[in-house]
Model the fold of this input.
Amino acid sequence: MRFDAVVPAVPDTEVAEETVVEERLTWPWKVILFNDDIHTFDEVIAQLIKATQCSWEHASSVADTVHTQGKAVAFDGSFEDCFRVQGVLREIALVTQIEG
Done:
């Protein structure tokens, strides 16, 4: 019996592979700010303005929501921007979390 004459069967079809690349870093991400008993409204508002360049009115609204509901979305954007904003908020030890 000769084994060198045996050729394995290979289907004559092409398989197209689709590669799905997730752009997770550009998806909508959020910085969540949590309530604490350490910081004053003025401190939180000032740090929100510093971190996000938002208006005093917007920062005040976020601070009020954090106070009454325990947390609020402080910022949304790309992961890189959220990471930067979170870093600024944490300069004064505000409690934050990034969610995507």
